[in-house]
């Protein structure tokens, strides 16, 4: 199944806040209608797990096949399967670029990576799913190669809080730089989700 390319506010109304997908929010009237509709219908246990899986998938912009692959990797790793799953998604290059404030959303970060604007340890990496490691240095190519609109988006997105496992630095005349200090912890993940529901959803497939 390919990535979702439809209207993002439609997903926000159905799945609530998805900070990685868009920085837009639905208005209070639409949110109230969606809440009333969800209360009026009885949701099965399968439906609850499906909704959690959809929230995780759409927030990080992964395909169904990719998410299933991450669940299988997480099952073989030490520690909590749900927490390892979130860490695998958080350490993707497109998400790291987003979390460093170099892009306003994960889809925008993926576009930067695909267009070869992102360097990892001074080497161009154009694979959004590339798994970043401890001490990886993330930089953007020369600002002259970026459009003025893209530079404005980067400047705006830098205002948000950088998680503890990342360090961001930028000075006038220099390209922005980000350093991966370690593995993302559960507290630094800004998506409100019960990851165990996602693991349970895939329990028969992984």
Describe this structure in words.
This protein has 206 residues and is of the alpha+beta class. It has 2 domains: 8-87 and 190-201, Ribosomal Protein S4 Delta 41, Chain A, domain 1; 92-182, RNA-binding S4 domain (Structural Genomics Hypothetical 15.5 Kd Protein In mrcA-pckA Intergenic Region, Chain A, Roll). The chain is built from 9 helices and 5 strands; from the N terminus they run αααααααβββαββα. The protein has helices at residues 8-15, 28-40, 45-60, 64-76, 81-90, 93-99, 106-114, 148-157, 195-201; strands spanning 118-120, 123-124, 137-140, 166-169, 177-180. A 5-stranded antiparallel sheet has the order 2-1-3-5-4, covered by helices on one side. A hairpin with a 2-residue loop joins strand 1 (118-120) and strand 2 (123-124). The chain is globular and about 55 Å long. The two termini are 17 Å apart. Mean pLDDT is 81; it is low at 28-36.
Brief write-up:
With 206 residues, the protein is of the alpha+beta class. The protein has helices at residues 8-15, 28-40, 45-60, 64-76, 81-90, 93-99, 106-114, 148-157, 195-201; strands at residues 118-120, 123-124, 137-140, 166-169, 177-180.
Strand content: 5-15%
What is the H level of CATH, i.e. the homologous superfamily of the largest domain?
Ribosomal protein S4/S9, N-terminal domain
Order of helices and strands: HHHHHHHEEEHEEH
SS content category: alpha+beta
Number of helices: 9
CATH topology of the largest domain: Ribosomal Protein S4 Delta 41, Chain A, domain 1
Proper CATH architecture of the largest domain? Orthogonal Bundle
Please tell me what the overall shape is.
globular
Mean pLDDT: 81
Low-pLDDT stretches? 28-36
Q: Share of helix among residues? A: 40-55%
GO cellular component, one term: small ribosomal subunit
Function: One of the primary rRNA binding proteins, it binds directly to 16S rRNA where it nucleates assembly of the body of the 30S subunit.
Pfam family, one: S4
GO biological process, one term: ribosomal small subunit biogenesis
């Amino acid at each position: 199944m390919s990535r979702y390319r439809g209207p993002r506010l439609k997903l926000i109304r159905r799945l609530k806040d998805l900070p990685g997908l868009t920085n837009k929010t639905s208005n209070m009237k639409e949110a109230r209608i969606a809440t009333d509709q969800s209360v009026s219908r009885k949701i099965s246990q399968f439906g609850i797990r499906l909704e959690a899986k959809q929230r995780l998938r759409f927030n990080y912009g992964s395909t169904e096949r990719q998410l299933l692959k991450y669940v299988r990797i997480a099952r073989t790793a030490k520690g909590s399967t749900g927490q390892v799953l979130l860490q695998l998604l958080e350490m993707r290059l497109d998400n790291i670029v987003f979390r460093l404030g170099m892009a306003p959303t994960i889809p925008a970060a993926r576009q930067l990576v695909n267009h070869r604007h992102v360097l990892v340890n001074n080497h161009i990496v154009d694979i959004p799913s590339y798994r970043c490691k401890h001490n990886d240095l993330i930089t953007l190519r020369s600002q002259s190669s970026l459009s003025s609109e893209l530079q404005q988006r980067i400047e705006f997105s830098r205002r948000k809080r950088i998680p503890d496992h990342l360090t961001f630095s930028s000075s006038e005349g220099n390209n922005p730089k980000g350093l991966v200090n370690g593995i993302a912890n559960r507290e630094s993940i800004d998506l409100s989700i019960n990851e165990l529901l996602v693991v349970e959803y895939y329990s028969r497939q992984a």
